[in-house]
């Protein structure tokens, strides 16, 4: 998920927001050192961003991505555990000892058909039809690695106790992993979690995010095949059940509360027209504000699915939950500390080429060509965050935020005005826009990690907010049932179809400075539009 279009015009530097910086001079000096250390590792940041971009893997199939990123952490002394929560591409990487234990997470999966040449303001595939990073999930774990390595060096030298744990958001686009991470106890002893998600600016807020809770499920129907012309009266069409179910849902939509979002695709519509479909399947995303409402939506859908089956003399074979998400809620004390760090770091120094790239993409999308944001917006209350957001997506980081104090750092590494979940969102993601954004984001993440490691008061305040404010009346209950299992089969066929062809374009940093150099692309490439 990506929340866009924060109102950066509201940016003002409120003196109150700078107060957290006035703290300990030792921490202050270490933060200056962290920023320098991250600048010195900018090359590694660029390599990681470009490498993961070139893998372009879909949810649950992030094989190369996980091997590569966890490998870098293992090489740097982190203890890597692979296949956590029963998900082959999930892992944790831990370093240090004792409390506080601070987790750093970010998503790693791509988007179907979002394969795109970076730095080109025009629809140009690298591999036609293939997936790609049309959301920018190639940048978040690299950001966390830069932050973790810098803080690790400081902790080692200064003999500061504490543990850093990195983890990847697998199959975020299907909301497929984080509820299972929670169930597997991945965050049991963790004191706080810092998440990172790509955006076009620093978006930091506390309280309920303007997002929705979600249940995603596949409904499979069974009928009976027959010659569709020769003996249709002997067939029972599972596709009829799917279409009736979808129609029932559309009629039902009128009677739902307006905040809901629901949408579906038919994943199995039969084989060919002259065979009455004996199987058919429809995949729904149900989104509502809270546990009760989204659970009711799902129960209503099951009732309608059974009705559709009955009306078509077919059967509802299985209902499989594929993903789920609680609406995220971010921790106030940590968000305040993080925002102070964002003010200190400031926006990346965009140059003329970065702005030309951004404006060309915006013009291509018929969006106002205002270029890249240049100011850090203020910390947002839940009300301001809701006003600043135009979207109502979902993110399974929500499940983690309801189990321990957490904040998401939205960082500026993409172009304002892109539609999200689209090839255009991939254009900037292996260019200096992403590279600079990741370095700036890593500094904010590292400084906030240092705040948590060095300030028992901040950890205590975060816990106090979590226990006495956030979860005072609302208690976490998973939206997955105890028998639901991670959908590790997701995207296997799609990935298998394209992987061999994509492999030819994996980034080779031993031969090329950047992925753009490897692809022979000039930055920025702006096609001439003939009037
Ligand atoms: Zn996302």
Number of helices: 15
Q: List the strand order in the largest sheet.
A: 1-2-4-3-5-12
The termini sit apart by 36 Å
In sequence order, what are the helices and strands, one letter per element? HHHEEEHEHEEEHEEHEEHHHHEHHHH
* Cα Rg: 24 Å
Question: What share of the residues lie within helices?
Answer: 25-40%
Can you list the ligands bound to this structure? zinc ion
Strand content: 15-25%
Give the averaged pLDDT, no decimals: 94
- Which structural class matches the secondary elements? alpha/beta
pLDDT under 50 segments (min length 5)?
2-21
Structure, explained:
This protein has 531 residues and is of the alpha/beta class. 37% of the residues lie in helices and 16% in strands. Strand 1 (79-82) and strand 2 (91-97) form a beta hairpin. Helix 2 runs antiparallel to helix 4. Bound molecules: zinc ion (ZN).
């Amino acid at each position: 998920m990506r929340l866009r279009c924060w109102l950066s015009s509201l940016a003002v530097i409120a003196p109150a927001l700078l107060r957290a910086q006035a703290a300990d001079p030792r921490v202050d000096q270490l933060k200056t050192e962290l920023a320098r250390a991250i600048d010195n590792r900018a090359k590694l940041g660029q390599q990681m961003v470009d490498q993961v971009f070139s893998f372009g893997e879909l949810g649950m199939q992030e094989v190369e991505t996980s091997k590569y990123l966890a490998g870098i952490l293992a090489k740097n002394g982190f203890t890597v555990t692979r296949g956590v929560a029963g998900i082959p591409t999930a892992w944790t990487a831990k370093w240090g000892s004792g409390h506080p234990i601070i987790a750093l997470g970010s998503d790693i999966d791509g988007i179907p058909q979002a394969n795109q040449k970076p730095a080109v303001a025009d629809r140009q595939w690298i591999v036609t039809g293939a997936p790609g990073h049309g959301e920018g999930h190639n940048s978040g774990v690299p950001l966390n690695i830069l932050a973790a390595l810098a803080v690790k060096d400081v902790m080692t030298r200064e003999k500061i106790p504490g543990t850093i744990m990195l983890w990847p958001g697998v199959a975020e686009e299907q909301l497929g992993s984080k509820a299972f991470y929670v169930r597997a106890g991945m965050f049991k002893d963790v004191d706080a979690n810092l998440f990172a998600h790509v955006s076009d600016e620093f978006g930091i807020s506390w309280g309920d995010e303007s997002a929705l809770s979600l249940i995603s499920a596949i409904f499979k129907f069974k009928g009976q095949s027959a010659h569709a012309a020769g003996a249709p009266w002997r067939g029972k069409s599972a596709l009829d059940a799917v279409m009736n179910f979808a129609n029932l849902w559309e009629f039902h939509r009128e009677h739902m509360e307006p905040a809901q979002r629901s949408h579906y695709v038919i994943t199995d519509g039969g084989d060919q027209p002259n065979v009455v479909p004996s199987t058919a399947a429809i995949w729904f995303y149900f989104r509502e504000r809270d546990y009760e409402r989204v659970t009711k939506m799902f129960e209503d859908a099951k009732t309608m699915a059974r009705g559709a089956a009955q009306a078509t003399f077919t059967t509802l074979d299985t209902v499989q939950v594929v993903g789920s998400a609680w609406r995220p809620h971010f921790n106030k004390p940590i968000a305040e500390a993080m925002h102070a760090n964002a003010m200190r770091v400031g926006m990346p120094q965009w140059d003329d080429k970065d702005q030309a790239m951004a404006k060309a993409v915006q013009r291509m999308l018929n969006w106002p060509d205002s270029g890249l944001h240049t100011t850090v917006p203020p910390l947002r209350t839940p009300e301001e965050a809701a006003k600043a957001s135009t979207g109502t997506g979902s993110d399974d980081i929500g499940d983690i935020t309801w189990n321990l104090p957490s904040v998401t750092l939205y960082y500026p590494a993409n172009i304002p005005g892109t539609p999200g979940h689209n090839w255009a969102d991939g254009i900037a993601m292996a260019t200096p826009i992403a590279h600079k954004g990741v370095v700036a984001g890593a500094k904010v993440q590292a400084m906030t990690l240092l705040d948590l490691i060095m300030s028992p008061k901040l950890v205590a305040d975060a816990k106090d907010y979590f226990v006495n404010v956030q979860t005072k009346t609302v208690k976490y209950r998973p939206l997955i049932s105890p028998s639901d299992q991670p959908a590790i089969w997701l995207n296997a066929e799609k990935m298998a179809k394209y992987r061999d062809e994509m492999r030819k374009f994996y980034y080779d940093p031993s031969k090329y400075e950047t992925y753009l150099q490897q692809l022979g692309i000039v930055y920025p490439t702006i096609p001439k539009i003939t009037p």
